[in-house]
Amino acid sequence: MANEKEKILITLTPSESKRLIAEGVKNLDEVQRALKHGIVIIALGTTNAYVADTILNALPGSGKKIDMQRYGAGVITDKGTCVVPKEEREKDVILKNGKISDEGIEKAIEELSAEDVFIKGANALDARGNAGVLMANPVGGTIGSALGTVMARGVNFIIPVGIEKTVPYSIIKAAKRVGNEKFYKSVGMPVGLMPVHGKVITEIEALKILGAEDAFPIGAGGVDGGEGSVVLCAEGNAEKMDELMTLITQIKGEAHVKVVGKDCGD
Q1: Which residues pair with 74 in a beta bridge?
Q2: CB contact at 8 A, 218 and 251
Q3: How far is CA 147 from the centre of its chain?
Q4: The pLDDT of residue 2 is above 60
């Protein structure tokens, strides 16, 4: 049939998913507007490392390179729930009218308005689309200090998070049951969980932003380097599907995420 949608099958490792999500975030209307006339804060995080790298590479003359291995705060590794020590971390990327600002994130948060953008990743996503952020810091870290301002002013809150972080339990319920002072023992650092509400961008939303008429997951997991992968179907007209497959081909082979200087509360 002439009007039937073309389908493409996409398999992505977690690092490849992060790059795809970053491409989607970069192309959001509110992000593009704020890059021209406003503030964009890209808080630390492994997915946000890709967001920062993708946005900076698209800015004419930015010239800034970030050390993606150090663009993290709280991380989950084979050792458990860990943090990157402050002295090992990159500085949060803050952009004002498309130019890199050297001011600290606390000052930039104070200046946010409803036209600006705050980007912060998540550690969990439930079946209802609720996102959650793990917090080892006893006062909540970046999300703890930023959320009041972001929500009170109606700042555009973008939450990039991969489907691999989907959990089969309500984040709202889980948050009520945990806290870093509630654990008897832990593999890694004990943490609390904060539900956060904003515009969640997974691989699905990214594919739609980038031209798919529809997209949905059909598989997950893997072996032999494919651990944590997602298998997706995207639908749309042949031209858009060809464009998407070209992008996916460029993304394939993205290096695995690594971090340095982990503190896992050993």
Answers
A1: 83
A2: no
A3: 16
A4: no
